[in-house]
């Protein structure tokens, strides 16, 4: 008689394990997210900091950002209307699940403005919305920072722009 309850218990465990495995979404069943396309990205202060410790800033504008994907090559471009129509910093991006990161080289047209780069780290809220934190790394020495350079973090949110030019 002892064999029958053990068989039923074993069968129940196997049944639960198989049904759990079949009902759990896998990477193949989840929709793949992409930054490819045009995005309107809005920057806002983080912790009330509107400039870096040394007074450098990118301001808090809306930026049109364009991301392309050509196989494994993922590039980006930022419209910097405030700096001129031909100023378009270039960058690269990657995605890991629902998280993404992008890095852009800052434009430095003259010696009075610092060069550097911007790193974005964020997440998808949906296929058409993102949010995260950007950090500007200015090529200006700052011994008070661990990086040795003037840095400045700020928040961002973004909306994918439809082909007709409207936010989705």
SSE arrangement:
Blueprint: H1 3-23, E1 37-45, E2 62-70, E3 73-78, E4 90-96, E5 99-105, E6 116-126, E7 129-141, E8 149-161
Antiparallel strand pairs: 1-2, 1-8, 2-3, 3-4, 4-5, 5-6, 6-7, 7-8
Rg over CA atoms, rounded to whole Å, is: 23 Å
How would you name the CATH homologous superfamily? Quinohemoprotein amine dehydrogenase alpha subunit, domain 2
Flag low-confidence runs. Answer: 21-30
User: In total, how many beta strands?
Assistant: 8
Biggest sheet architecture: 8 strands, antiparallel, barrel
Which class of secondary structure composition applies to the elements? Answer: mainly beta
Q: From the 3D structure, determine the CATH topology.
A: Lipocalin
Domain unit count: 1
Task: Please report the first level of CATH classification, the CATH class.
Answer: Mainly Beta
Strand content: 35-45%
User: What is the overall silhouette?
Assistant: globular
The overall pLDDT average reads: 82
Number of helices: 1
Q: How would you write the strand order of the largest sheet?
A: 1-2-3-4-5-6-7-8
Distance between the first and last residues' Cα: 65 Å
Return the string of H and E elements: HEEEEEEEE
Helical proportion, percent range: 10-25%
CATH architecture: Beta Barrel
């Amino acid at each position: 008689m002892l064999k029958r309850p053990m068989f039923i218990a074993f069968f129940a465990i196997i049944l639960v394990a198989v049904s759990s495995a079949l009902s759990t979404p896998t990477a193949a069943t989840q929709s793949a997210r992409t930054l490819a396309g045009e995005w309107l990205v809005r920057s806002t202060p983080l912790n009330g900091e509107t400039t870096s410790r040394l007074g450098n800033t990118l301001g808090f504008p809306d930026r049109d950002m364009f991301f392309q994907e050509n196989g494994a090559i993922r590039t980006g471009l930022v419209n910097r209307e405030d700096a001129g129509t031909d100023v378009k910093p270039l960058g690269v991006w990657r995605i890991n699940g629902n998280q993404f990161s992008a890095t852009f080289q800052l434009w430095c047209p003259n010696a009075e403005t610092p060069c550097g780069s911007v790193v974005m780290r964020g997440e998808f809220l949906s296929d058409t919305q993102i949010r995260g934190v950007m950090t500007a790394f200015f090529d200006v020495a700052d011994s008070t920072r661990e990086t040795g350079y003037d840095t400045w973090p700020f928040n961002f949110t973004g909306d994918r722009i439809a082909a007709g030019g409207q936010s989705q």
